Amino acid sequence: MSTTPIAARPFQFDLQPGRAALVIIDMQRDFIEPGGFGESLGNDVSLLEAAVGPTLALLQAWRARGWPVVHTRESHLPDLSDCPPAKRSRGNPSLRIGDAGPGGRLLVRGEPGNQIIPTLAPIDGEIVIDKPGKGAFYATPLQAELQARGVTQLVVAGVTTEVCVQTTLREANDRGYDCLLVEEATASYFPAFKAATIEMVVAQGGIVGWAAPLAAVLAALPDGA
Ligand code: C5J
């Protein structure tokens, strides 16, 4: 199998074209736009905007090559039967998961605020995973979808770095996927947490995976269509 070397930390990531899915975590209005779940928790959502352009660049690169793309959405069923009481009881006591905000019910599947932002909206043929947890594998068909396509590597983008992105990286790592986190294509409401997460991922010889700048990933990709 041919590989494409990407300059990464803690050492070169050997991308296997066609076996590497782009996984975009929770680039939803609920986290990125005012009036959603993220803002309900007191966060400055404008901090996540920086990840949109780099994520779009990755998405366009994957689409141009016809490689697998996964989008995830943190979401709950309208009756909240998949939302553990412990999850709902924390956060903002006057605006909880399932309560009505300006974009509809917070973190509820199908609500306007729960959709992926228009710039990064999925297109036909891309995998969309609704996930009730922070990790993309818990209580979802993601593992089966990846296995069906022969995917063994995940190139990961999305928000927030230390919550859903990191949880997904750890879940994927335990399942045997090689994961590469693209540094500019992820963001946090807490820049220090983003930086710390990247260091945690690559520490100890890549105990969770690899990290690389966007430019290194794009420069290494073989010519697209
Ligand atoms: C959070 C996420 N932060 N997508 N979700 O609750 O990171």
Automatic annotation (TrEMBL):
Q: Which GO terms describe its molecular function?
A: hydrolase activity
- Region Disordered, annotated ranges: 75-95
InterPro entries with a match to the protein in the record: Isochorismatase-like_dom, Isochorismatase-like_hydrls, Isochorismatase-like_sf
Q: Name one Pfam family in it.
A: Isochorismatase
The superkingdom listed in its UniProt entry is Bacteria
Q: Which residues form the Isochorismatase-like domain?
A: 20-208
Which keywords fit this entry according to its UniProt record? Hydrolase
User: Signal sequence: where?
Assistant: none
Q: Which PANTHER family match?
A: FAMILY HYDROLASE, PUTATIVE (AFU_ORTHOLOGUE AFUA_2G08700)-RELATED, PEROXYUREIDOACRYLATE/UREIDOACRYLATE AMIDOHYDROLASE-RELATED
What's the protein name?
Cysteine hydrolase
User: From what organism does this protein derive?
Assistant: Pseudaquabacterium pictum
